[in-house]
Amino acid sequence: MKSRKEGIVRLVALVSVLVTAALPGAAQASGARRTSDRKPDFSGIWQAVNTAAWDLQDHSGEIGWPPGQGVVEGNEIPYQPWAAAKKLENFARRKTADPVEANCYLPGVPRATYMPYPFEIVQTPQRIAISYEFAHALRTIPMDGSPHPDGLPDTWMGDSRGRWDGSTLVVDVKNFNDQTWFDQAGDFHSDALHVVERYTSADPDHIRYEATIEDPKVFTRPWKITMPLYRLLDKNPRLLEYECVFYLQEERFKNAPFK
């Protein structure tokens, strides 16, 4: 009788483990660092390790252009016909037209996340700040449930508003200008861009990042990018000074192999 009871207990425990493991996000949340209010603690320095800054989609390599796998769901950006032609024009002119690599403007969202430079998240229950090494870009994200204010001017980095969806940080971003690109390949948007980011802890040192992109002036439907973000584990990691100066960019591109 005793062995039978022990067997039942073991079976129940096994079923419990299997059910828990099958729940969406259960594994991701299990190893997350937690704040005092029991939310995942994303504070720290992070970096994407991919080639999305060059091209969001699958792409081959060339001199100065690393090959890479795409981060777009389905590997398709659903441009309207006129916008697909505009993207090809941007690609042909990328040497001088890219707002970031050629002109040192702020990268916008989501491009700031996967630039080949780290960024730091500082988190409190009321507010989250994200500071980027590239060009000292900064985002402040209120977590108080306040909506996007009316009448805000359009900006390079947009206006961010955060909330929690269970253990996932959701950031709604609007009020963009139409000047930023998503990558060096010339993927672009209008001032109607709307980005919804999702940060989910995969384990203490990895974040699963998603960004859903909507722009009815440019795309036929919303589309999504996904990628992991990695915590910097170097000894005493910190953001360093990086000044993007336009005349230096001119010199760097003067003898670039692409036209």
Summarize the structure in words.
- The chain has 6 helices and 9 strands; from the N terminus they run ααβαααββββββββα.
- It has helices at 2-22, 26-30, 81-92, 94-97, 111-114, 246-254, and strands at 44-48, 119-123, 127-132, 138-142, 159-165, 168-174, 194-203, 206-214, 223-231.
- The N and C termini lie far apart (81 Å).
Largest sheet, in brief, is:
9 strands, antiparallel
CATH level-1 class of the largest domain? Mainly Beta
**Low-confidence parts, pLDDT < 50 over ≥5 residues?**
1-30
By CATH, the architecture of the largest domain is named Beta Barrel
Which bin fits the share of residues in helices? Answer: 10-25%
**Structurally, how many domains make up the residues?**
2
Q: Can you count the beta strands?
A: 9
Query: What's the SSE pattern?
Result: HHEHHHEEEEEEEEH
Corresponding CATH superfamily of the largest domain = Calycin beta-barrel core domain
Outline: globular
The CATH topology of the largest domain is given as Lipocalin
Mean pLDDT, all residues: 86
Q: Number of helical runs?
A: 6
Biggest sheet strand line-up: 4-3-2-1-9-8-7-6-5
| Cα end-to-end separation | 81 Å
Q: What is the CA-atom radius of gyration, in angstroms?
A: 21 Å
Secondary structural class: alpha+beta
Give the percentage of residues in beta strands.
15-25%
